[in-house]
Amino acid sequence: MNKKLKIYSTLLVVVIAILAFTNFFHYSTYTRATTADEKLELTECPSEFMSTDTLANGSVVTTRHPYLAYDVYVEPVNLPGQKVLLSTSFDQTYRVSMKKVQLELPMSKVSSYLPTIFMMSPIVPSLIVLIWIVILVVKLILSIRRGDIFVAKVAKYLEIAGILLCVLYLYDFIVQYSITQYFIHNIHIADHYIVFHNDSNSMYIITGLALMIISQIILKGKDLKEEQELTI
Q1: pTM
Q2: SS3 track for the chain
């Protein structure tokens, strides 16, 4: 087994173990200052989001105003005496906890577009990487159709595609973490913490490492094929 194959195989095992651990186990500890006037309540929609006007003929026109929306993961503070959301139906009672929420801010109150820029930043690099991968896949298919399977060129295409998928995953992870840290330090939600949750597509890095392993297997097959031809 060559050196790269050992490294890629070890990385794949480590990545799968980390992803499995972080999906099944979650530990977090947060501290923050709270204020007496903070509250989370069910109320009428403020006029900044939606307004109604009564026309001369008595009909009512509803106008929805533009807003920015951010998706964040949250955890309850669980303070003593804190009110909770309960669902009671058919003699069954459940406490309902929010895990992922959408925060909406009226455009009239937006002071910074930095979070929006953060969230949109992965789009262009992702498109570039995906287009590059498609080109590599086309080249790979053409090589295979010519019968060139156990060749260095095919292995190179697979390895580059795998590396690009891993880079795409890591870039998305870093952007998500940075956005969450910005929200944690700039947004306050009553009775809840904003927490980081990895929403990056894990199949990117798993598939990427798998392609990198296959590329080394192809190189190994190429060496064996050459040895066999020399023997014959």
Answers
A1: 0.76
A2: CCHHHHHHHHHHHHHHHHHHHHHHCCCCCCCCCCCCCCCCCCCCCCCCCEEEEECCCCCEEEEECCEEEEEEEEEECCCCCCCCEEEEECCEEEEECCCEEEEEEEHHHCCCCHHHHHHHCCHHHHHHHHHHHHHHHHHHHHHHHCCCCCCHHHHHHHHHHHHHHHHHHHHHHHHHHHHHHHHHHHCCECCEEEECCCCCCHHHHHHHHHHHHHHHHHHHHHHHHHHHHHHC
